[in-house]
Amino acid sequence: MKLITVLLLCSRLLPSLTQEGAPQEIDCNDEDVFQAVDVALKKFNTGKTIGNQFVLYRVMEGTKMVGSETFYSFKYQIKEGNCSVQSGLTWQDCHYKDAEEAASGECTAVVGKRGTKKFSVATQACEITPGNGPVMTAKYTCLGCVYPISTDSSELEPILKHAIQHFNNHTDHSHLFALEEVKRAQRQVVAGLNFEITYSIVQTNCSRKHFRLLTPECKSLPNGDVGECRDNAFVNIDQKIASFSQSCDIYPGEDLSHPLPENCPGCPRSIPANSPELTEALGHAIRKLNTENNHAFYFKIDTVKKATSQVVSGMIYTMEFIARETECSKESNTELTANCEAKPAGQSLNCNANVYLKPWENKAEATVDCQALEMSTMMRRPPGFSPFRGVQVQETKAGATRLLNSCEYKGRPSGAGAESPPGSEAESSHSAQ
């Protein structure tokens, strides 16, 4: 009955399917099955604006209709991963969240295929079951209400730091701005925390032409421009800023009587990408990257694209580099070593890093922002590789074949929340033909 329903849906979508059909076997070794599911799951994750991506768990059932176009109709299960929808990663790069905290879901999709590579989602519907993650509601009688919090709260510090950097990176103003005063703040407990913050900013003597970020030398100008910003930030249960929006109004101050000289001491200077001077700074940057990301394997620096240094009360290094995934897992190795070789088909990241060093105080602060390089995960798989475990199929009428057993995603990362995988062969009972 379920098969008939799916077939009727497909026939209503494209009448041409009822006019021609060629039986073709579908099983877990059919790479097109995985590509169809991959397109459907990416479509679902793209539709999320906050929270984490979902990761494929298994394909439960499905049919393949071959006509002037090919249509895959299937039902699949998903589990919440630990990569936010803002991370720029694909679901294949995510781990499952802890089983007790992770949401789960079941989706039904119809995916069409045109030509040899173009897949598109015709219809899809998903039912999501929330997890039992920790929600901090004990101190409030109204669950989920918006409450004012102290403007001096330590919870605001990482959000304000992110907010000032975000403004300075996106403003058209000639100078950097610094935080002046937090005027009011509110917090709402959800599956994480929503913050609403209003604060004032003030222009500093550091021009954006000469300074990439605020330093101790950047002082507020008494007659400089000022502004007021209103920010909304969502902090997930992993204490990461998962979404952020900002609106600022800038008001002009008096003319500056002492503009910065065109050539100033302490301004950034370019240095060779292979300079030994970068060794320590790059070491701090890659350690920061490996500490903050949730990847199962360590990354190492492959190529330094460009770098600058700036003398302040210490030294600031600004670098852009390519980092590649290595064969050293975090589970088996306590740290990245020189013996960790890059995976031939591993992931690559394009990273921008700022490292502030003050050696006489043994002080080092690093910030790293990385984006995955454009590379299709499917293209990285060796020929003949199937991401699913074996499955039985049964031919039906009208040019369709039906999955008799589920295709479990064997490429998923191991870790918290993941069930023990079965053997290399499907551990399912044989259905009567």
How does this model look, in words?
- The chain has 433 residues and is mainly β.
- It folds into three domains: 2-133 and 384-408, Nuclear Transport Factor 2, Chain: A (Roll); 146-236, Nuclear Transport Factor 2, Chain: A, CATH 3.10.450; 269-372, Nuclear Transport Factor 2, Chain: A (Roll), CATH 3.10.450.10.
- Helices cover 14% and strands 40% of the residues.
- It has five helices and 17 strands.
- The strands form three sheets. Strands 1, 2, 3, 4, 15, 16 and 17 form a seven-stranded antiparallel β-sheet that branches. A five-stranded antiparallel β-sheet has the order 5-6-7-8-9.
- A hairpin with a 3-residue loop joins strand 3 (104-114) and strand 4.
- The two termini are 17 Å apart.
Q: Please state the structural category.
A: mainly beta
Distance between the termini: 17 Å
Largest sheet: 7 strands, antiparallel
Rg = 27 Å
Q: Give the averaged pLDDT, no decimals.
A: 76
Poorly predicted runs are: 1-23, 133-141, 255-262, 375-385, 414-433
SSE succession: HHEEEEEHEEEEEHEEEEHEEE
What percentage of the residues does DSSP assign to strands (E)?
Answer: 35-45%
Number of domains: 3
